[in-house]
Design the sequence.
């Protein structure tokens, strides 16, 4: 059995960042909802993730608005109805 190490995952409470990661093909591995005031979304880390996140914060990425909105809606459903 393979176990994930802390460096194998990336977590963020930024729902827009996570939705962008989902839009570009990353999967939601887990959502930590233990704190009722914020959730932390987790994805598996790969070689390109850090650069991708830098592109996000540098405003270098583009998304299709309706697809992005659908991902946000799905994430909120998982947060509030799961």
Sequence:
């Amino acid at each position: 059995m393979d176990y994930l190490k802390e460096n194998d995952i990336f977590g963020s409470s930024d729902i827009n960042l996570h939705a962008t990661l989902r839009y570009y093909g990353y999967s939601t591995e887990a959502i930590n909802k233990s704190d009722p005031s914020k959730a932390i979304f987790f994805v598996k880390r790969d070689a390109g993730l850090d650069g991708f996140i830098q592109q996000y914060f540098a405003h270098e990425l583009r998304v299709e608005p309706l697809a992005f909105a659908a991902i946000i809606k799905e994430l909120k459903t998982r947060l509030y109805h799961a």
The mean pLDDT is 93. The helical segments are 15-23, 49-57, 65-80. The radius of gyration is 13 Å.
